[in-house]
Amino acid sequence: MRYFDLHCDTITQCFTQNKDLTENDLQIDLKRAEFLDAYTQCYAVWLPDQFRGQAAFERFFAVATYLSQEIEKNSNSICWQNSVDNLSQNPCQAVLTVENASALGGNIENVEVFRRLGVKLCSLTWNGENELGRGVMSPGNTGITPFGREVVAQLEKNEICIDISHASPELFWDVISIAERPVVATHSNAKHVCAHPRNLTDQQFEAIKVSEGLVGLNLYRGFLNDDSQKASYEDILRHTEHFLNLGGEDILAFGADWDGSARRDFVATGIEAVAELYEMFCRYNYSETLIDKIFYKNAADFFERQKSH
Q1: Left if phi > 0, otherwise alpha if psi is -120 to 50, otherwise beta: which for 106?
Q2: Which residue from 161, 163, 170, 208 could staple onto 143, CB 3.0 to 4.6 Å apart?
Q3: Packing angle of the helix pair 233-245, 273-283 (nearest 10 deg)
């Protein structure tokens, strides 16, 4: 089976806890992913909201460098996603992303650093408010700032897609109104199924679909069921089915959010559970073609299209 995941915080956890990507006690490592026939993982440099200014940029740079070193150390088993044209040459690939554009340190010129280091996706905020706009968990009704508008334009100019997971509703719609490239929600579920503020309304999902973007299913309990203690694998199917009913066959993917919180806060314990999820989808009588789209092909095709823009 093949698996393409749009979001994890694993490399940030590896950096802060001085752990190896090769083998660790987190939710993802390369050794446990060896069962997959093809595996691409987006590794997010996550910036908590307390990081601002030069300290935020330095944190980004340090974590991005750490990922580069881990890939170089494991070059026989993983490579950068855009470094080979034929996946069979190396079935395990990594994509560098940013969670919270406070990583720019308030300096528009650092978008060029993002591009040079290979960043492919960047969310404008985390939960709080920063120089670009308001995150969904921050009180208020403001959207994008003038600086945020500049950043969106520069990110797109540098072929870095906008990730609107964590954006406030106002920020979301501001981005939709100005974005010229596809917009992605790397790790957000359906608000119709679970009313958490981090989830997407049907209208937001439709806007992402119109932009020819992607939506990644999140395995965090709090985004799966209004009663997080009752969240289960079946809830993943509920969100999947809802998005499919909205016409999401070609834009739905996974963004599990591995290592984004404590292990107990996820319905799946780690990368090994992907096989269980796959089997569950098979039991639900989805076609092999549709399952492969959700688990791998939609995301892989999306990144391939971005190369040709």
Answers
A1: left
A2: 170
A3: 60
What does R_g of the chain's alpha carbons equal in angstroms? 18
**Distance (Å, whole) CA 81 – CA 85:** 9
Residue-level pLDDT at 89: 62
Q: What is the b/e burial string over 217-226, where b = at least 16 CB atoms within 10 angstroms of the residue's CB?
A: bbbbbbbbbe
Token duo for residue 57:
């940029």
> Which amino acid, 210?
V
Neighbours of 196 (CB within 10 A): 18
Any idea what DSSP says for residue 10? Answer: H
Q: Please give the CATH number for the structural domain made up of 2-307.
A: 3.20.20.140
- Per-residue pLDDT tens for 210-264? 999 999 999 999 999 999 999 999 999 999 999 999 999 999 999 999 999 888 8
Structure tokens belonging to residue 295: 């688990």
**Domain spans, the chain:** 2-307
pLDDT, one tens digit per residue, over 263-295 is 889 999 899 999 999 999 999 989 999 999 999
CA distance 273 to 259: 14
Other beta carbons within 10 angstroms of residue 137's beta carbon come to 15
Model-level pTM? 0.96
Q: What stretch of H or E contains 178?
A: helix 169-178
Res. 158: pLDDT tops 80: yes
Rounded CA-CA distance 247/245 in Å is 5
DSSP run (H or E) holding 254: strand 252-254
